[in-house]
Structures are given as C-alpha cells and as structure tokens.
Amino acid sequence: MSETGHIAVHQFEGSLVGVIQIELSDEVVARFREDLLAEIRRTGSTSAIIDVSGLEVMDLYEFEQLRRICRMAGIMGCRTILAGLQPGIVAALVQMDADTEGLETALSVEQALELLRPGPTADDAASAAAGDDDLDGDPGADGAAPEDEGKRLG
Q1: Residue 19 and residue 31: Cα distance in Å, rounded?
Q2: CB atoms within 10 A of CB 106
Q3: In sequence order, what are the residues at sequence separation of 6 or more whose Cβ sits closer than 8 angstroms to the Cβ of residue 64?
Q4: Model-level pTM?
Q5: Positive or negative CA dihedral for 40, 15, 80, 26?
Q6: What is the pLDDT of residues 94-120, one digit of tens each?
Q7: What dihedral do alpha carbons 123, 127, 130, 131 form, nearest 10°?
Q8: DSSP 49
Q9: Domain ranges in the chain?
C-alpha cells in the first residue's frame, strides 16, 4: 500500500459508516469505493453513511466522486447518506452548481442514524399531532354541541 491513506468502513447501529478524515486523492477514493461496495455485498447492509465532517476542503471533482459512490451503493440497494458537509464546502458546491440530484445528506452522523432508524414516519407524527382531539371519530369532539350540527343560520 502506498502512503495515500485508507478510509475504514465499519458497521455501527446496523449501518455501514465510512469516516473520511484524509485528503481525497484518486487512489483513496478508488479504494474507499471498492471497500464500501464490497462491505455492502458482504454484509447485505441496506444503509450506509459517508462522514465527511473531517474535511475542510472539497473540490467539485471530489464531490462528484463521492456522489457516484452513493449512486453505486443505491444501485446495490443500500440507502446512503452523505453526512457532515462543512458550511464553506456547501457554499462552494452551490456556487460551482454541483449536481446534488438524488443525494441524501445530514448535518451529522447522529442525524443520519436518526434518519435511518425505523419508526413512525413524519406523516404518522403529523397525523397524530393534528388529530389528538378527534381520535374517537365523535363529531362533537371539536367542542360543538351535536344538536347544533347541521343547523343553518338565517
């Protein structure tokens, strides 16, 4: 192995996690891609997080390489979230008109894990919050007297 470094891929809370804290040379990205895809195949994992919070700079080419890795993982049936993009990197990517279509992101690994955790959907939570008073289906539960319903004024 050359002195280019290595990005380890570990399993954590049911997801594969790759923490990138080294410069993204072509060799590092290629090895990370191979390692991540091999781990997806080996473990059958359906979720992965690529943590880039340790990167202070990222150019458009490096971003495109990571985006492609996310797409490859997706083709293998693995939902992949890019986590921890620094505000300066985000601003630069937007200024360079980077293609973010289909890319799922999170502020941190913790937030990515939360997104991947099974549980009630946002729709379920919104329905429960909005419908707390009418769960029994009683039309009078909104405070109106049942005998007033259907009456017309005037």
Answers
A1: 13
A2: 19
A3: 98, 99
A4: 0.74
A5: negative
A6: 999 999 999 999 999 999 999 998 876
A7: 180
A8: E
A9: 9-120
CATH number of 9-120: 3.30.750.24
Measured from the Cβ of residue 29, the count of other Cβ atoms closer than 10 Å reads 19
DSSP letters, 53-75, are: TT-S---HHHHHHHHHHHHHHHH
* Segment (H or E) for 16: strand 15-19
Cα 112 to Cα 103: distance, rounded to the nearest angstrom: 13
pLDDT at 124: 61
Per DSSP, which regions of 33-144 are E strands? 47-51, 79-83, 104-106
**Which tens digit of pLDDT belongs to each residue from 33-91?**
999 999 999 999 999 999 999 999 999 999 999 999 999 999 999 999 999 999 999 99
